[in-house]
Amino acid sequence: MSTDQRTLRADARRNRERIMSSGRELFARDGPDAQMDEIAAHAGVGIGTVYRHFPTKEALLTEMVRVRFQEFAAIATLAEDVVDPREALETVLLRSAEAVEGDTGFQLAMMGSDQLEWEGIEEQKAALAAVLTRIIRRAVGAGVVRDDFTFEDFGMVMCGITSTMYYKPGSADWRRHLAIILHGVSAPVADPGAPTEARRTLA
To answer: SS3 string of the chain?
Structure first.
């Protein structure tokens, strides 16, 4: 690859990152009313540059979700090393929620998931599913999580949590929301024992 080609690729990557950052800021400010031309101006690039990377607003939202799913997979991979099976699952849910607390673009995408181009994130979703399914099965096998809890429920939980974040920005209500959900997915046990670190953090 020539020096000029490397420079062009580096410029394109920087532009893409600036557009993503601008998109997050404007979605946080304007919600679904954020416009692509405003995102371009805020990023300091031409509208043509934006459309080369993201031909539609839905494509931009999809990329935001793809990046977040990569992050969720990384969180889950680290959580898999947690010895306590329930704490491992709680950690994934808590850290994933914390990661998107200020990302209104992601929150909007989750609430309007029918507009997402899911085929663009299937690889990232599959990577997350593989790790998280192992974590869930371990928790179910240990008898600390209800036996019908699945990876698909993770998406349902995240949709609910992100809607709380979106409609109550800056509040701690989503943490209470998550705490109630975690209680709801618990398997009946005679002695629940001491609270895990994740539950102490939520409290």
So the answer is: CCHHHHHHHHHHHHHHHHHHHHHHHHHHHHHHHCCHHHHHHHHCCCHHHHHHHCCCHHHHHHHHHHHHHHHHHHHHHHHCCCCCHHHHHHHHHHHHHHHCCCCHHHHHHHHCHHHCCHHHHHHHHHHHHHHHHHHHHHHHHCCCECCCCCHHHHHHHHHHHHHHHHHCCCCCHHHHHHHHHHHHCECCCCCCCCCCHHHHHHC
- Please report the pLDDT score of residue 31 as a whole number: 77
pLDDT in tens, 64-81: 888 999 999 999 999 999
CA distance linking residue 61 with residue 64, whole number of Å: 5
pTM beyond 0.85: the answer is no
Low-confidence ranges of the chain (pLDDT < 50): 4, 190, 192, 200, 202-203
* Torsion angle defined by CA atoms of residues 108, 152, 145 and 180, in that order, rounded to the nearest 10 degrees: 20
The Cα 158–Cα 65 span in angstroms is: 12
Query: How far, in Å, CA of 160 to CA of 152, rounded?
Result: 13
